[in-house]
TrEMBL record:
Organism: Chryseolinea lacunae
Signal peptide span: none
Name recorded for this polypeptide: PspA/IM30 family protein
Keywords noted in UniProt: Coiled coil
PANTHER family for the chain: MEMBRANE-ASSOCIATED PROTEIN VIPP1, CHLOROPLASTIC, PHAGE SHOCK PROTEIN A
Coiled-coil residue spans: 26-53, 124-158
One Pfam family recorded for the sequence: PspA_IM30
Family: Belongs to the PspA/Vipp/IM30 family.
Length: 233
């Protein structure tokens, strides 16, 4: 059968070289499994047909055996009737010979059909065993395919990440970060300088206002002293 020829090809060592040359081994494997699933379906259907034929053949054998026994009984019965005088002996013998002829005919047919039934049963058992083997292998191969597909996806993603990391210019990025750090330090220093300038300016203004305020109070005191000395209220 084509199924088992394909299984034999899969088991050959040359398949490894063929897989290495495939553009996409996973897709090719999936296609092969789809073909095997189709073969498995056909094998299951073929087994069912052979099994049904074996059953029909066994039924035919049983029917021939019953016919053979029936005609053997009829031959005895007709001779018993001749013995009792119910049937003419010569006629009874002719009928008995015909019955025995049919008895032998159906007996030989039942034997021949029985051999066919045995062969069909053996073929159906072999087909069932091979179908079960194929089914078990299919389940194992499909499981392995799922595992390999997942591993392939992970390895592909890892490859892309590692490739991107390998292409990164670490020295260039570090240099840019150093320049940014220097620029931020300069900006922070400048902001701090402006803050100190602003605080110094405010301090001087406050000192001047304080001095002016103190002078104004001193003058008022002197004026008041003069007014008191002169008696000006």
């Amino acid at each position: 059968m084509n199924i088992f020829k394909r299984l034999f090809r899969i088991g050959q060592a040359e398949i490894h070289a063929a897989v290495d040359k495939m553009e996409d081994p996973i897709k090719m494997t999936e296609q092969g499994l789809r073909e095997l699933r189709n073969d498995l379906s056909q094998a299951t259907e073929a087994y069912a047909k052979v099994k049904a034929l074996a059953i029909r053949t066994e039924n035919d054998q049983l029917q021939r055996q019953q016919e053979s026994r029936s005609y053997a009984e009829k031959a005895i019965l007709i001779m018993q009737k001749a013995q009792s005088g119910q049937v003419d002996l010569v006629k009874a013998e002719d009928l008995a010979r015909e019955a025995l002829t049919l008895h032998k005919k159906y007996y030989l047919e039942s034997e021949e059909i029985g051999q066919q039934a045995v062969a069909l049963q053996q073929s159906s058992r072999e087909m069932l065993r091979n179908t079960e083997i194929l089914k078990e292998n299919m389940e194992k191969w499909e499981k392995e395919l799922r595992t390999l597909t997942a591993r392939a996806k992970v390895s592909k993603a890892t490859e892309q990440v590692n490739k991107q990391l390998a292409q990164v210019d670490s020295n260039g990025i570090i240099a840019m970060l150093e320049r940014m750090k220097a620029k931020v330090d300069d900006q922070e220093a400048l902001a701090k300088a402006y803050g100190e300038i602003s605080r110094d300016s405010n301090s001087k203004k406050e000192e001047l206002n304080s001095l002016l305020k103190n002078d104004s109070l001193s003058i008022e005191k002197d004026l008041q002293a003069i007014k008191e000395k002169l008696g000006i209220l």
